[in-house]
């Protein structure tokens, strides 16, 4: 996989994890912390994350790479929050690759 596709895959997973956490009632600081931990585990050290009840933002310093996701609906589903937290731990520890984490039939379930 070339570098640009790998970076996009990493950011896709980061944004998906943050979106699921935010939609399902996770605390804002946990959304941000999880996104940063996944980024760091994939070699993205200089990143910024801002989570608010209605949106999440992710950017990489000294690049023109940034993503924003508006979150228009939310509910409380602690099971989904726990699932994302477990998958995040597996990504950070190297037990789970990004492709498996991203696709619903293999990893994170929306």
TrEMBL record:
The highest taxon in the source lineage is Bacteria
Q: Locate the Threonine/serine exporter-like N-terminal domain: which residues?
A: 12-101
Can you say where in the cell this protein is located?
Cell membrane
A Pfam family annotated for this UniProt entry = ThrE
Xref: InterPro entries: ThrE-like_N, ThrE_Dicarb/AminoAcid_Exp
Task: Print the keywords alphabetically.
Answer: Cell membrane, Membrane, Transmembrane, Transmembrane helix
| Membrane-protein topology | Multi-pass membrane protein
Would I find Cell membrane among this entry's keywords?
yes
Give the protein family.
Answer: Belongs to the ThrE exporter (TC 2.A.79) family.
Protein name (record): Threonine/serine exporter-like N-terminal domain-containing protein
